[in-house]
Specification:
With 81 residues, the protein is mainly α. The chain has one domain. The termini are far apart.
């Protein structure tokens, strides 16, 4: 799967789960502008950053569960409100 397909799959899963891109980026420790540059093809993520994004998405249950309580518990453990 290419990067754009992976980004679209993550965005689709987030939308399905009711998780905002802003919240996801916060949890993945990247800026929304970075995500946007990846999506537009301006730059590509390095391996360690993309691995963190994938791990965050997987920790959220792939975001497809529609149960965002997991997201809230992750946020609280990160010190977010």
């Amino acid at each position: 799967m290419d990067l754009n397909s992976e980004i679209e799959a993550i965005e689709s899963g987030l939308l399905e789960a009711g998780v905002t891109l802003t919240k996801f980026c916060f949890l993945a420790k990247i800026s929304v502008s970075t995500w946007t540059r990846w999506r537009s093809g301006v730059v590509a993520p390095n391996f360690s950053t993309w691995s963190r994004v994938e791990a965050t998405y997987e920790d959220m249950g792939g975001a497809r569960s529609k149960d965002v309580s997991q997201v809230h518990s992750i946020s609280q453990s990160e010190g977010a409100t």
